[in-house]
Amino acid sequence: MTGAANLRIEMPWLLRNNAGLAGVLVLIALVCLVGAAASDRFLSFNNFLNVFEQTTDLALVSIGQTLTILAGGIDLSVGSLISLTSCLTSGLINNNPDRVVVVVIAVLVLGTAVGCVNASLVVALRVHPLIVTLGMGAVLQGVTLLYALGPVGRVPRGFNFLAYGRVYGLPLGATLAVLLCILIALLLRYLPLGRQVYALGDDANSARLVGLRRTRILMLVYGTSGFCCAATGLYLAARFGVGQPYTGVNYTLASITPVVLGGTLLSGGKGGVVGTLFGAFLIALLNNLLNFMDVSKHYQLVAQAVIIILAVSVYVERRRTM
Amino acid sequence: MLKLAGISKSFPGVRALNGVHLHVQPGEIHGLLGENGAGKSTLIKIIAGADAPDEGEMDFADAPVQWSSPREAKQHGIHVVYQEFALFPQRSVAENIFIGHERRNRFGLLDHARTRREATQLLQRLGVSLNVNAAVSSLSVADQQMVEIARAMVHNVKLLVLDEPTAVIAGREVAVLFELLRRLRETGVSVLFISHRLDEVFAICDRVTVLKDGRLVGTHDIRDVTRQRLISMMVGRDLGDLFPPRTMTARSSETILRTEGVTVGERVRDVSIELRRGEIAALAGMVGAGRSELALGLFGAMPLRSGVIHLAGQRITSMTPARAIGLGMGLVTEDRKSQGLAMLLDIAANISGPALSEVAKHGLIDRRLESEVAAREIERYRIACRGPGTKVATMSGGNQQKVIVARWARICRSVLILDEPTRGIDVGAKAEIYRIMRELARSGVAILMISSELTEVIGMADRIIVMREGRVTGELPGGAATEEDIMHLATSENAA
Question: What gap in Å lies between CA A289 and CA A43, rounded to an integer?
Answer without folding.
Answer: 10
